[in-house]
């Protein structure tokens, strides 16, 4: 666990340094450089043991056309439909608790033994209903709305999985860790070559 904190400290320091560098460049180099190690310790005291880091974000919009039919004892049927416009902010990153590292002090090398897959850390969603058409005997109730929103959210997750966000996050984490190691005079090595991404894990959020 202590080693995970060490890695997280390096990563958070890199994020802070990256943002500081962007602001520094925009101000035409008028701001002094920040100490990565000091920044890491300060941030660690604030966030305690949070190991999930967001490295890529994307915005998605999906139009979901829901239709349902209800059969009343085979005598007649009623139809209900609703058009849902779903918008979502999807954050993809890594859970460092699922990674394994080891340090070689002699060669000053950080070796990645197990590299986790990128995950959907959160999905912040916003839904709007349009063109609601329901029969007198087939009105939408709370359960129906919950089901509709769940189906719409599933579509957003699938869309995020098929996007380039996982690949962007994977490139970002490797680049960031390489730069972090280099900044303290260490090297980064993988015990095995990373395989191409096929899927991305999904973390269900509570934002609806």
Structural class: alpha/beta
Helix content: 25-40%
Strand order of the largest sheet: 1-2-5-7
The number of distinct structural domains comes to 1
Report the portion of residues in β strands: 35-45%
Task: Give the integer mean of the pLDDT values.
Answer: 69
Largest sheet: 4 strands, mixed
Helix/strand order, N-terminal first = HHEEEEEHHEE
**In whole angstroms, how far apart are the ends?**
34 Å
The Cα radius of gyration reads 23 Å
Number of contiguous helices: 4
Rough outline: rod-shaped
Strand segment count: 7
Residue windows where pLDDT falls under 50 for at least 5 positions: 21-49, 193-208
Protein name: DUF4230 domain-containing protein
InterPro entries: DUF4230 (IPR025324)
What does this structure look like?
Helix 1 (2-26) packs across helix 2 (36-47) and helix 1 packs across helix 4. The protein has one domain. The chain has helices spanning 2-26, 36-47, 142-161, 165-183; strands at residues 52-72, 76-95, 100-104, 109-114, 119-134, 187-190, 201-202. The strands form 2 sheets. Strands 1-2-5-7 form a 4-stranded mixed β-sheet. It has a 3-stranded mixed β-sheet with strand order 3-4-6. It is α/β, with parallel strands linked by helices and 208 residues long. The longest helix has 25 residues, at 2-26. Mean pLDDT is 69; it is low at 21-49 and 193-208.
């Amino acid at each position: 666990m202590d080693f995970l904190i060490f890695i997280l400290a390096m990563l958070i320091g890199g994020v802070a340094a990256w943002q500081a560098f962007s602001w520094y460049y925009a101000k035409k180099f008028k701001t002094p450089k920040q100490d990565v190690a000091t920044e890491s310790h300060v941030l660690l005291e604030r966030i305690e043991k949070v190991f999930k880091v967001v490295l890529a974000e994307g915005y998605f919009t999906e139009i979901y056309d829901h239709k349902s039919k209800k059969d009343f004892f085979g005598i007649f049927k009623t139809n209900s439909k609703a058009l849902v416009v779903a918008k979502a902010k999807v954050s993809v990153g890594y859970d460092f608790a699922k990674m394994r590292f080891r340090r070689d002090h002699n060669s000053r090398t950080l070796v990645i033994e197990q590299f986790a897959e990128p995950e959907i850390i959160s999905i912040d969603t916003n839904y709007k209903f349009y063109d609601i058409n329901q029969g007198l005997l087939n009105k939408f109730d709370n359960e129906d709305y919950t089901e509709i929103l769940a189906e719409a959210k599933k579509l957003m997750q699938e869309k995020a999985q098929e996007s380039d966000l996982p690949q962007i996050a994977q490139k970002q984490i490797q680049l960031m860790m390489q730069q972090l190691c280099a900044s303290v005079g260490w090297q980064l090595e993988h015990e095995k070559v990373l395989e191409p991404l096929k899927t991305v894990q999904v973390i269900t959020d509570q934002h609806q």
